[in-house]
Design a protein that fits this description.
mainly alpha; Four Helix Bundle (Hemerythrin (Met), subunit A)
Length: 183
């Protein structure tokens, strides 16, 4: 799909769904005209840094996560399973979308690790929590890569998921379902 930058900007500002802004957190130019890349970066930053209703944002992200979870495979799913990669990605996207208006440095990066570092630097997460989420993310991604390059091993994958899922689900409750966590 090809559109002009003006059409892309209009769409992002007026018609895009939350999940499209979640994708924009990770979006980056990888090749092309330097001016087009710079214009895309400006649009991305402007969209990410605009104020949002955090309760509505949380509700949309939680709903999207619920729908993804319903389609998770029966085997150990490091990406879409509860306490897996998607949970961390969605938390990172929430932090960026919810707080970049107040902390524009959250829009500087497109990768989860540096966004988690930034969230700690600006006080949205304590350093220990950010480090633990980064470690969990990297462990899950490493095992997922291992699965892609090797014969999948559900036992090994289950061990990695089990080692990290409680922390991830706990932080999910803190960031995205705080009312439910109190019940």
């Amino acid at each position: 799909m090809v559109s002009s930058l003006a059409a892309f900007e209009h769409y992002q500002n007026h018609d895009a769904w939350v999940w499209e802004h979640q994708a924009l957190v990770r979006a980056r130019p990888v090749a092309g005209d330097a001016q087009v890349c710079a214009a895309f970066q400006r649009i991305r930053r402007d969209v990410l840094c605009r104020p949002r209703d955090r309760a509505q944002l949380r509700a949309a992200i939680v709903d999207m996560r619920r729908r993804i979870g319903e389609s998770a495979d029966a085997h150990v799913d490091l990406k879409r399973g509860a306490g897996g990669i998607v949970d961390i990605e969605f938390m990172v996207q929430y932090l960026a979308l919810a707080w970049a208006a107040e902390h524009p440095s959250l829009a500087d990066w497109t990768d989860n690790v540096r966004i988690l570092d930034t969230a700690a630097k600006v006080g949205l997460l304590d350093g220990e929590t950010a480090a633990a989420l980064k470690d969990a993310y990297l462990a899950l991604r490493s095992e997922r890569h291992r699965e892609a390059l090797d014969i999948p091993d559900d036992g090994r994958a289950r061990e990695v998921l089990d080692r990290n899922a409680a922390l991830i689900r706990e932080q999910w409750s803190v960031l995205l379902t705080p009312d439910i966590a109190k019940e």
